[in-house]
Amino acid sequence: MPYFYLDKYYLILVVPAIILSLVAQMLVKKTYSKWSRVRNSRNITGAMAAQRVLSYYGINNVQIGQSSGKLSDHYDPRSNIIRLSPEVYSGSSIAAVGIACHEAGHAAQHAENYLPIKIRNKILPIANLGSSFGVMLAVIGYFLGFGILVDIGIVLFASVVAFQLITLPVEFNASRRAVNVISETQLLLSEEQSGAKKVLTAAAMTYVASLLVSVASLLRLILRFNNRRR
Q1: Going edge to edge, which strands form the sheet with 63-66?
Q2: Torsion on CA atoms 222, 22, 97, 181, rounded to nearest 10
């Protein structure tokens, strides 16, 4: 089974996508590192910025708390809590404000029943199965000659791609909401807004890169197994 990973499709499709993903991650770290060292002139913390977004959308049932770890920021819709990492929660950097507003943007999406969120939640259970068992089933079916098992595995893995695809508008929309609120409420000065936007744009590119890796892996599975059946 190890030699399953050493084929031309992996080298042609997957490896370049992985390299692109690594570059995107490096870009995020570099951009975040730069703007996390620049304090905003209004001395607004991430927690204050997130609250400003919630107030902008008239949301009063979402709490803001701290999470552990670096860049562990997320919105938990089950408990209605925006969890911000310590450096974002109490930090007053431009990066902290941008990230906090982004997470609050997710809370706004849930409050408004944003359609892509609802679609993503429907796909999530199947995507979890696909992430855990899709490739494994396809590989087992491939070596045992069970075509139906290969097809099931590919369909399950395709659900992962579908989940990542629908995640893109969710993430881009949350960032767009964040930038709009920052601009309209003057949370940051105009020259500082550019920095926050760069942080959010770099973070969004990691989702694009991850999608490309999954698409490349899916195409590789399809091409590899179709050749086997000929």
Answers
A1: 63-66, 81-84, 74-76
A2: -40
Asked if 95 and 35 count as a contact pair (C-beta separation under 8 A), the reply is yes
Q: Which residue in the list 103, 112, 171, 184 is annotated as catalytic?
A: 103
Per-residue pLDDT tens over the stretch 125-164: 999 999 999 999 988 988 888 889 999 999 999 999 999 9
Domain spans of the chain?
Answer: 2-229
The whole-model pTM stands at 0.91
Please identify every stretch of the chain with a pLDDT value under 70, giving residue numbers as ranges: 1-6, 227-230
Is residue 192 among the annotated active site residues? no
Query: For residues 38 and 215, what is the distance between their CA atoms, to the nearest angstrom?
Result: 37
